[in-house]
Design goal:
It is a single chain. By secondary structure, the protein is an alpha/beta fold. It contains 18 helices and 11 strands. The chain folds into 2 domains: about 1-25 and about 35-290, ABC transporter transmembrane region fold; about 315-390 and about 470-565, 3-Layer(aba) Sandwich (Rossmann fold). The strands form 2 sheets. It has a 7-stranded mixed sheet, sandwiched between helices. Strands 2-1-4-5 form a 4-stranded antiparallel sheet, with no helix packed on it. A hairpin with a 2-residue loop joins strand 9 (about 520-525) and strand 10 (about 530). It starts with a helix and ends in a 6-residue tail after the last strand. The relative contact order is 0.08.
């Protein structure tokens, strides 16, 4: 609406200015032109106001759109889950959600409004000029399409170049974040200089890409300016000749000459603003790709509203479950059959890549079975809403996420809104109360990014306190003793034993401290499970994983491994 008002003001300005100049040339005095001059000043002020108001409205619209896209991107990332996020580069996604979407400001504040003017102004000017002089209107009508034609031809090249620049910037951001996060390891192994070279190469490619885009933008401006200037000159020449021979009135000639440049100007400006907004459009396109990404299939849910089964009394059954990841020749889990009884402690061990974490991902609903089904109390797990199902779970990942909040706030993530007494009781049960009390501000101590000033054992204990606070009937622990010394692992194991009372616990670990002989111990290999019993076959297993379990399980009878659980018939 402001753009249409601005268009009307252009016509009014040209008409008033032509009237004032022609009247002045005819000898009219200042008193006779006072009214027209006042109106002309009002029109000029109106153009300034509509221009500023239009840009302000566009910036507000850009802020709303960016907020919706950012929140939609965050919700979609949560919906797709860690399985999808793990395949992305964190730096690329972060750059997309921040600087990438901020590049939409030129698109909304300048390009879109200019696009409206590029349609409205030429049509209005053409109608006004044609009404005053049909010959000039015909010349404008013939030459006007050349501007968008040239702009479209240049824009096709610019779009591809802008897309490449955005990909390079996203790759640079992702790689730089990875390098910063792993800087200590790189320095330790003397590989920091090599990464400096890699970053320099990516930066050089990005700089070259940006300069190529700018070259195209400058050349396109030259082409469009030349086309518009030639078209305007053509109108001016024919108007001048007809004015010279008395075939056109002075006022009409002034009106045509004042309006003709206005017909081409919005088209030239729209082309220039397109180059400035190309990066934001590319980033938004990538956001829409993510928003359109379908989540992993979760089976065929049962119609109607289901009540989540009570995990304290209902078993969990895996029925011929297979999980195959795209691009991998072998499935991570192959034809798995397993029953987890209520209140049972199940320890799953095996080499890296055997499929242990995938098994936990299935229960966390981060991964969906490619084939088979998981049942809980006779109900297909895929029919239960994921959020409702996760309310009954407590999960300790390999690398727990600790945020730059206070220690108490990090523990309270287990149950938002929990009282301070409940938080402290959970910390005590997890064995974290002693070191927390020695921190500068106790439970109010603010942690740094990823809590790197704490030891690995202290971070695990804070995460374990969340599980005590959550009080869920099903516990999933993924390598709880990873990167811990033997004493810290033993302390953590004792805390897990306290946590396991009256709960179903599934522990994934290859550490002997976590394999204490209680419950069942299963070996996972090539996506299939085998139940282990103490015996020489286990003691003589050649891998370090099972040498670590030898002291925990011990040598006993000559009975080796029980029949395989979940092996496919061909296996």
């Amino acid at each position: 609406m402001l753009g249409l008002a601005w268009t009307g003001l252009i016509l009014a300005q040209a008409g008033l200015l032509a009237h004032v100049l022609s009247a002045a040339a005819a000898g009219a005095g200042a008193s006779a032109l006072r009214g027209s001059l006042v109106l002309l000043l009002a029109v000029l002020a109106g153009r300034a106001i509509t221009t500023q108001a239009g840009e302000a409205a566009a910036l507000r619209a850009a802020a709303v759109v960016k907020e919706r896209l950012r929140s939609g991107l965050a919700r979609q990332a949560l919906r797709l889950g860690p399985g999808w996020l793990g395949q992305q580069r964190p730096g690329e996604v972060a750059e997309l959600a921040t600087g990438g979407l901020d590049s939409l400001d030129p698109y909304f504040a300048r390009y879109l409004p200019q696009l409206v003017l590029a349609v409205a102004v030429p049509v209005a000017v053409l109608a006004a000029v044609s009404a005053a002089d049909w010959i000039s209107g015909l010349i404008i009508a013939v030459t006007l399409p050349l501007i968008p034609l040239f702009a479209a031809l240049v824009g096709l090249r610019t779009r591809a170049q802008a897309h490449r620049s955005w990909q390079l910037l996203a790759g640079l951001s992702g790689h730089f974040l990875d390098v910063v996060q792993g800087l200590a390891t790189l320095k330790l192994f003397g590989r920091s200089a090599a990464q400096e070279q890699v970053i320099a190469e990516i930066t050089g490619e990005y700089r070259s890409s940006v300069m190529a885009t700018l070259r195209i933008a400058f050349l396109s401006a030259l082409v469009l300016e030349l086309s518009a200037s030639l078209a305007t000159a053509l109108v001016a020449v024919e108007v001048g000749l007809r004015l010279l021979y008395g075939h056109m009135g002075y006022s009409t000639a002034l009106l045509v000459l004042l309006l003709t440049p206005e017909a081409y100007l919005p088209l030239r400006n729209a082309s220039a603003q397109f180059h400035a907004s190309a990066g934001g459009v590319t980033a938004a396109g990538r956001v829409f790709e993510i928003l359109d990404t379908a989540a992993a299939p979760s089976g065929r849910p049962t119609p109607g509203r289901l009540t989540v089964p009570d995990l304290r009394c209902q078993p969990i059954r895996f029925n011929r479950v297979t999980v195959a990841y795209p691009g991998r020749p072998m499935p991570a889990v192959a034809g798995l059959d397993l029953t987890v009884r209520p209140g049972e402690r199940l320890t799953i061990t095996g080499e890296n890549g055997a499929g242990k974490t995938t098994l936990l991902s299935l229960l966390l609903r981060f991964t969906a079975p490619t084939a088979g089904r998981i049942e809980v109390g006779g109900v297909d797990l895929s029919a239960i809403p994921a959020q409702a199902w996760r309310e009954g779970l407590a999960w300790l990942p390999q690398h727990p996420a600790l945020f730059g909040w206070s220690v108490a706030e990090n523990i309270a993530l287990g149950r938002p809104g929990a009282s301070r007494a409940a938080v402290e009781r959970a910390a005590t049960l997890a064995g974290a109360a002693c070191f927390i009390s020695e921190l500068p501000a106790g439970y109010e101590t603010l942690l740094d990014e990823r809590a790197l000033r704490l030891s690995a054992g202290q971070r695990k204990k804070i995460a374990l306190a969340r599980l005590f606070l959550r009080d869920a009937p099903l516990l999933l622990l993924d390598e709880p003793a990873e990167h811990l010394d033997q004493a810290s692992a033993a302390e953590l194991g004792a805390a897990i034993v306290r946590l396991s009372a009256d709960r179903t616990v599934i522990v994934v670990s290859h550490r002997g401290e976590m394999i204490d002989g209680s419950g069942r111990t299963l070996l996972m290999r090539d996506g299939a499970l085998t139940e282990l019993t103490p015996g020489p076959a286990l003691a003589e297993h050649p891998t370090s994983t099972f040498r670590a379990t030898r002291s925990a399980i011990g040598a006993a009878s000559a009975a080796g491994a029980a029949p395989a659980i979940g092996a496919a018939p061909a296996q």
